[in-house]
DNA polymerase mu (Mytilus galloprovincialis), 303 residues
Amino acid sequence: MFTGVFGVGPSTAKKWIERGWTSIKDAQESTDISKDWRVQWGLAFHDDLMNPVKSNEAYRFTEIIQTEAKKILPGIVVQLTGGFRRGKHQGHDIDILFTHPNGEETGFLPKLLTRLEKLNMVLCGSHESSSFHEKVLSEDFKLTARGQLDHFEKWLGICKLPKDSVSGDDAQIPLSNELEKCTEIKENIDSLDDYEPKAKKQRKCNGDNSPFTIATSERDWIARRVDFIMSPYSQYYYALVGWTGSKQFNRDLRLYSQKVLNRKLTSHGFYDFTTGKTLPANSETEVFENLNLQYQHPKNRNC
Ligand code: UTP
Ligand code: MN
């Protein structure tokens, strides 16, 4: 239950249990809680985040991101992944994968985040640089600090989505007016590479802008967990399979790859232990071909 709170991992959960807390409310009401800014936001917006994201919300949000992304970097590929790509009608977050066929993606995510903050769509989040290096393709994840986590540049955070995008087919595309208002900042976009998340300034979580104050104020939006992942184009189709999931489908593909083919499949590529080489893929179909498996539509990966 506690690790279901944004920002709470197994060690924080253990501490909370040791304190005798038995409900989220205990953590929310305690004045002696972790000072980690993620946890503060996670607790403040726990109710919002427990309310499942609906597919129409995820599609609309992706549309907005696509529009903004293309203004910043023409040619950028914006792909909704996770459960929604597998045709699920609801999920716990919105996972969006990016790539650029000409390799022009450096610096894109910070620019996108700066833009979304200007549009008042961001509550908090953290940006991680890529930690990819060639060894990632072949190393034994049990021996590494990151374990099975991938090494892509990413942003994990919480965004604001208008409540009217949650229900009904006739809802307006959210934030359209604000998007129009913001066209005047377009010319400055190339200088927006100094991204410093607003959340960092709010880490102390006090004063009028504390997460709890924001959460309990009257508002016409709902907080949603969002993941943005940036993949180099050469790894993109492996990243797409990995981020489409499901988790169990990935586990089975990877186990089969290791045991039967003596190859290592990750979201970064497909490594052959015998030749010491990786096999490229120029489509999702090619990922399955490389695995000697029949192509499976995302809808068939819900296992
Ligand atoms: P999610 O945890 O979002 O799963 O990760 P989901 O299937 O979309 O479930 P809901 O509907 O949001 O609850 C999406 C996919 O991305 C992979 C997971 O294994 C899953 O297949 N993933 C997640 C990674 O490859 N790396 C990560 O760091 C996180
Ligand atoms: Mn998801």
The domain at 244-300 is CATH 3.30.210.10 (Beta Polymerase; domain 3). The chain is about 35% helix and 15% strand. The radius of gyration is 20 Å.
